[in-house]
Amino acid sequence: MGPRIRITDLREPRLTDIQRVALEHGERHRVVLTVEAVLGAAVERTGLEDFGREDFRERLALWLAEVDEDPGRTGLGRLMLHRDCIRYASNRLRIRDLLIRHPEILEVEISAPIVVVGLPRSGTTHLVNLVAADNRLRSLPLWESYEPVPSPDEDTSGDAGPDPRYRRAEEQWQGMEAMLPYMGAMHPMRPDHVHEELELQLPDFSSYQLEWVARAPRWRDYYLAHDQTPHYEYLKTVLQILQWRRPGERWVLKSPQHLEQLGPLMTVFPDATVVVTHRDPVSVVQSAATMMAYAARMSYTTPEPDYYLTYWTQRIRRLLEASLRDHHLVPADRRVDVHFDAFMTDEMDNVEHIYKVAGLAMTNEARAQIGNYATSHPRGKEGQVDYDLRADFGVEPEQVRAEFAFYQDAVGVREEVR
Prior knowledge:
By secondary structure, this protein is of the alpha/beta class. The protein has helices at residues 17-28, 35-46, 56-68, 75-101, 124-132, 142-146, 164-179, 183-186, 210-213, 217-225, 229-245, 262-268, 281-299, 305-326, 340-345, 347-358, 364-376, 389-393, 397-401, 405-410; strands spanning 4-5, 114-118, 137-138, 250-254, 273-278, 335-339, 384-385. The chain has a single domain (4-14, 112-410), classed as P-loop containing nucleotide triphosphate hydrolases (Rossmann fold). 53% of the residues lie in helices and 6% in strands. The strands form two sheets. A five-stranded parallel sheet has the order 3-4-2-5-6. The chain has a two-stranded parallel sheet with strand order 1-7. The longest helix is centred in the first third of the chain and has 27 residues, at 75-101.
């Protein structure tokens, strides 16, 4: 178990020297947030020009405009979005190019995936990494999700050392740790960690991801107003590419976004086994709001913790309402409900139940691999953050809890925050 961490400067950040240097760098290197600038940089990076369907431009334009028009966004925050959008556009070009050269990829089957859904901060990351330790299964490490199709001029065989994509992901994580040293305790994103497959929707410029890196209510409203099935189809296509490049018996996936997109999820992956995690929403809200307010010191001139508390209370409520509304879309014999407290008490018992429902044999080798992961990656290894709604946000837990009475009535979870 790592050290106990108490973040006491959410409202008035005490910046480190590294943070000051990074913010100054962002102000000196102002970027142009336009579709033309982003796509032009991607074309220059890849040497490719065919982006495929053009409908993504409208979504990219909204992403860029919402951040560009926000006077509180720092130069560094603009630079980070600009960098990410160029990566997404570059990935889109390489995905399109590979599919043109290898149309047989679209015949690859993605059969009976195991998909973990549940609130952010509810144990989904730890659970999916446990299951992914079974080397029969195909999972999505962060480094591969960032660049699913490698550049053709780079050696990814391993003969010349680590995959260049892995090195870039490691460098990015080290930079993040230097700027935000407590982030690893809240949401570790090391290159080999299993990552959310919504990353594979980002070259199509759709998902709720932008809400995690920007104050983007306009994008939220656009995203919620549009059918996400085409973007889940895009996700499946990228999974086919990854399966074609490095096969596995079955995929194990995870994303909290699926809670409000069970319709598109089950339309595109009709034979999926869906694992739904449940946790006290108040604990989830305080964790998410604290993480976002902490990270905001680098992206915004004012951190505004109250904004994040209000925003994520509403968003988490929306996720839960949608999941209860649509739960019938998942066949009862392919759904597993995992309560956070029971999972923390006996991880292996819950994993074995998932395997049983998924029709996957729990071999001695798989049990050993999962056990080894659990031993070497205990929860809290990077440190344990002490959250405090009263001190940090000036609200009582019961004020937040009142928003989630419907969920407590329907599911019943142990109250963690009092």
